[in-house]
Amino acid sequence: MGFCDEVKKRFIRLSRGQRKVAQFVIENPNVVATHIASEVGKIIGVSESTVIRFCYAMDLSGYSELQDRIRKDLLESKHVSAGEQLSIGKKHEYLFSEIMNRDVTSILNTIQCIDAESFEKATIYLHEAGIIYTLGYRQCAPSTCYLTSMLENFGKKVTQIKFNVEDIVNQINRMDTDSVLFVIALDSVLEDILTIVKLAKNKKVKIIAITNSSISPVRDYANISFVAGAQKQVALEANTAANSLVHALVEGMTLHNRNYYKKFLNLNAQLDDSLQFLEKRTLTMK
């Protein structure tokens, strides 16, 4: 097990300041390996003593041992990556199989990380919500649109928060204790997402989050959080697992009142039939 994996396992037991150090160590190992403790603390925004206490919390003798462990991991990762070939731009006979199997692995990893009690609680939140706000930008936008569409198909009142200040302010002002904020945050750029989540938390909004890391800062504010995807998987690849999890959560929501949600599916089917009939009639008249 690499040192960063050990940090992730102990992350929940660390203090808030030590968690900042832990996240920085995982995301910036090269900086830790080449800078002294005081410099790292200044970059993170914590004291040097907090960096040292993090080392002790990880059962290390001090910062020097931390650097030794990080350097060892970096050296091993270079050996591994040297023998790997990027799939981007690569054409071969079984490319489709390689990519789809990677998606399967991503979904299987997600299943193993799901807590059944948290899953059930999330489905209740969705079922009982007066209005559900969906949030996800950049590479998470496709999964957020999928989530919004799925909820709308079952008659839920849903608002997808747009990426502009005016819409963000308007939607946050409308949130109350009957609201649910469903966040999909698979990106490394989280400043805007974190701001919205913090404001929603202050209004006592119930927050469900899907992230691609067990140490994502979004999880500190979410009532319920899930991890989607495989380790070190980029947001675009983790979307497949996130979509599968969204599908499962929405299906779980419908089990709390099968007849109610089935009614909306039937109405949508009738509307589709009516629109197809109208389209055919219009084409015939032309």
Tally of strands: 5
Taken from the alpha-carbon principal axes, the silhouette is globular
The domain count comes to: 2
Largest sheet: 5 strands, parallel
Q: Compute the separation of the termini in Å.
A: 69 Å
Helical residue percent band? 55-70%
CATH superfamily of the largest domain: Glucose-6-phosphate isomerase like protein, domain 1
The share of residues in extended strands comes to 5-15%
> What is the chains' assembly state?
single chain
User: Could you give the order of strands across the largest sheet?
Assistant: 2-1-3-4-5
Taking pLDDT < 50 over at least 5 consecutive residues as the criterion, the unreliable ranges are 80-88
The CATH architecture term of the largest domain is 3-Layer(aba) Sandwich
* Rg (CA only): 23 Å
CATH names the topology of the largest domain as Rossmann fold
* Class per helix and strand makeup: alpha/beta
H/E element sequence: HHHHHHHHEHEHEHEEHH
Describe, in plain words, how this protein is organized in 3D.
Mean pLDDT is 83; it is low at 80-88. The chain has helices at 3-10, 16-27, 29-34, 37-44, 48-57, 63-82, 95-113, 116-128, 141-153, 165-174, 191-202, 235-254, 258-285; strands at 131-135, 158-160, 179-185, 206-211, 224-227. By secondary structure, it is an alpha/beta fold. A five-stranded parallel β-sheet has the order 2-1-3-4-5, sandwiched between helices. It is globular and about 70 Å long. The protein folds into two domains: 3-82, Arc Repressor Mutant, subunit A (Orthogonal Bundle); 107-255, Glucose-6-phosphate isomerase like protein, domain 1 (Rossmann fold), CATH 3.40.50.
